[in-house]
Amino acid sequence: MKQVAARIFLPPPAPPLPDGRWNRYEIVFWLLPIAGFFVFPGYHVFGSQIIIAALFAVSLDLILGYARIISLGHAAYFGIGAYTAALLAKNGWNESISGLILAGAAAAILGFLTSFLVVRGQDLTRLMVTLGIGIMLYEAANRASSITGGVDGLGGYTMARLLGIFPFDLGGDTAYVYSVAVLAALFWISRRIVNSPFGLSLRGIREGEQRMPAIGASVTRKLVVIYTGASAMAGLAGGLLAQTTQFVSIETLGINRSADAVIMLIIGGTGRLYGALVGAGVFMILQNYLAGINPVYWQFWLGLLLVLVVLFARGGLLGGLTTLIQRLGQRSS
Amino acid sequence: MSAALRTEHLTKAFGPFVANSDITVTIENGARHALIGPNGAGKTTFINLLTGYLRPTSGEIYLGPQPVTGLSQHARVKMGMTRTFQITSLFPGLTVLESVVMAVCERTDRGGAWWRATAAETSAIDEARAILATLHLEHCAGIVARNLPYGRQRLLEIALALATRPTLLLLDEPAAGIPSAEGAELLGVISGLPRDMTIVFIEHDMNLVFRFAERITVLVRGTVFAEGTPEEIAVDREVKEVYLGESLNV
Amino acid sequence: MLTSFLGVLFDGIASGCLLFLISVGLSVTMGMMNFLNLAHGAFAMLGGYLCLMAMTRYGAPFLATLPLAMAACGIVGALFERLLFRPMYRAGHLNQVLLTFGLVLMSIAAATFVWGPEQQPIRLPPFLTGQVKAFGAEFGTYRLFLVALVVVLTLLMVFFVENTRFGAQVRAAVDNSQASEGLGINVDRVFSVTFALGSALAGLGGALGIDVLGLDPTFPLKYLVYFLLVVTVGGARGIKGPLLAALILGVFDIVGKYYVPEVGAFIIYAVMVALLLAFPSGLFGRRT
Predict the structure, then answer these.
(1) Domain B5-80+166-244, what architecture?
(2) In chain A, which residue's Cα lies nearest the Cα of B89?
(3) Closest residue by Cα to residue A49 from A265, A264, A281, A253
């Protein structure tokens, strides 16, 4: 009898239930921002920008990647956080950490109130409502220029020393460490959320929103919770920006900011948390170099990248990496 | 002791089209009750009304002594009424184990736990594995639902329903699309369900219906056409004309 | 007072008609294939720029450029549908949004590159400029022409959809594309043709709208919200819904900006939120 050595393509093994343990790739990954502090001494300001963008992208991943709420207006909460922190400092409250918490709280309140509009309805409605909220807030900030500075932005305030010890200097050292610490803390919380039964139910909503009520789950309540949480996180990212750069532009509320975060997620891969970090890093670095050369070219190639990723590489960078590792693993076995 | 399920003059109209008209049925505790009827008779609409997916145009629904007509879908599940779907409605990207663990967690109110890792929910996981074992799905625990063969998907549908520990189980064509030979496994599973669980099922496979049902309601064009024991329905000439066809020998 | 209100109201109606013309294609294709297309405005923009190019570079008269813009946009639309969008129908809304958003960015960049970032002026033929006096108020001639044209086209559309065989196929495909295939309707072809027609109408709207809405490379993004509003509020199903929605939006937008400019932009969104809360599936929509 002939032995037929068939190459059976097995579907990739499904991951076991998440247990919260950190694998070695993650540990290596988190050494990068620490290394970056020492390896790139002149880039701390830019580094903070990347970290803040990454935090904002993570907050978006929670609703877009895990619960699949299509939002093009997440920057509304980023902006509210930024303006809150800035206005607090401008009016005398320039202690950083408490200011940051208040910024997050303000964003959480707005997120909670708007969540009821967003969880109703289907994808198109959610797209519209989130777009609408973003645009309305932008307009409001524009009109209230006596408070917000309008298109000129809000500046003219300084932050007290962080923890009373570390000044926010022009070199950005304090800003960088502060940002990394906040990102690490919030990432840790996000990671626990997505690995928990609640995180599993969010994926359930993503995979089968219509089926969830039939197993006794209140979809509305879960979405309100995650939307509020993600808004709070976005507000914290905005507050970080306000505190580390001591300036808030009206563009923190703009649709460009929202769209950029979506693009970062697509580049890195949605629904993975680390995709948000990777995507933010890649996007910010590319943007820094390419947009500087010619902003029109940047916009074109960005659009093209988006189209190509959606057509051919839907899991983004991390998705492609995962598939590659699995294929290599199967070939060698 | 009130009946497990009772509807009173339940009606659902979509504009001029009346899908369910004045349906009044009573299902006793522990019943094995089949709902049959030609295509388009409104059987799935009826299930959708019972579970709250659709709001009735008029009429009332009672689960035991409780009126549930205004309650949300998930509230009714919490009260003990669960359904399966005719068109398989699973979570394509979740593994078999994840799906059932999720359903168990929802039931035990662990669905909102956001701090502990899922793997730490050992009682939920054990219960999920036990449910999978009763449905012979243990080997598939790690397979994502979209990669399951169709017959196993139908079993997963039932696993999800069992995870909610229903007192009233509504099965919408559980054997749909499964060849009669494989249907035996499914039938074995359903027969093995606890006696005190009330089961209402829609089926077209008459073998399954007559083997398993203790009472049958016939729905035609949105209204109750006939109701009785399998023996009564089998010899009912009008039912035969409208639905079963003269050639069926039971 | 009342006469100036009439004038403003009419402006709103004209604006709404233009919105409708551009958005009706989006509405029908969204209802038919459940495809979220953010790039629809790019076809309108293309129509506008083609019209301008034909006028300035080749001296074509304005009215002659209109069928040209329509034809070009229709062809481009058909190409995009066949090559890019068709593989995406089952890919889910998020991916569709991302793909079409990428296309929007590309179109804005391309338009900036070719025509520059400024607002494009247009010289309308003299017989379309000026005012017409009626009922004590003044109505812009061009806007009268716009409204008349849209009315005629809408009647044609309704006639086409109600009374032709292809129109019946379109209605069937919107209602239930799977069942339509089962009936032997070539749904792929129906959709291609409908998409082409929708893009052609958008191109026409873009060309007609240069004077009313303006034309610059950010057009697809600037008015994206309006088009989506028309589709969401109108219900992505037929022609009546988007028409009513577009008229409501146009009127509220223009009237709001004229009488309460401080809150002009909010009016639109407040109206939208109110309508969406009252009619989650749109004014004439169905639950999908």
Answers:
(1) 3-Layer(aba) Sandwich (3.40)
(2) A211
(3) A281
